[in-house]
Amino acid sequence: MHIFRNIVFVAALVGLAAGLVLTVLQQFGTEPLIVKAEVIEKANAAKAEAAPHEHAAGHDHGAGEEWEPADGAERFGWTVVANVVSGVGFALLLVAASELKGGLKSWREGLLWGLAGFAVFTLAPSVGLPPEAPGVEGAPLMDRQIWWIATAVATAIGLALIAYGRSPLTALAAIVLIVAPHIVGAPQPAEAPAIPHDLEHGFVVAVIVTGFLFWATIGTLAGVLRGRFADA
Amino acid sequence: MSNVSSAPTSAAALAPARALPIVFAALLGVVLIAGSGFASTPALHNAAHDQRHAIGFPCH
Prior knowledge:
The complex is a heterodimer. Chain A is mostly helical. Chain A is about 75% helix and about 0% strand. Chain B has helices spanning about 10, 15-40, 40-55. The termini of chain B are far apart. The chains are: A mainly alpha, B mainly alpha.
């Protein structure tokens, strides 16, 4: 019980801090682009509705009946909550995985684990499924989610085999595992994005850079805090 | 002299008593990420919408 409690405690602190840092970064990085893209998205949806056609209103944000946070403080508040929940979730994975290897010994070791998290959960999935601003219509959601998760899992196992495997063959298998999802290929959309290219591109850059800082924060803080509660 | 060399530290680090709580902690992390990033319940999706886009989770 000690170990579980310690992991959860460290991850909760780390996730809370990283979620707040991420929120600040998003205000400069991704949020302005989301707002800009949504203006275009809504204009396109209105156009599609005006001219009744088979695929009106691209993606339905709940078709108007579902609850959604009001713009402003409420929307911002839920984004903060979601950032913190994701931060704690990712921190739990990072701290738990590193405990299997005996626990983080320093902030630098934590930072290296953070880089691995960045590679697994930001970089690898973004290669096949570049982060999409609202209005970029993707392939069916379920297909993309499955590919995203499978790619993250394959990359994580691959990196672990490279770091902790003993034989060259293991390393070779790891490399194949990391490349495999990209050979299979991510589900691709049928249509070109409905937002300008520079906005689409800018969003990809913003998500990956904020993701890097987010993971660097998680890893470094986990390395610092784990030492304070180490006895498990 | 006979069995002194058993249980090297790395093996001890992965004893079931230690591995199990670690796995449960990781599962808790998976549950949180599933909720914030993947659940399709409209209210959850709408609440987490901006975050899903901004972290790069597949969204609508």
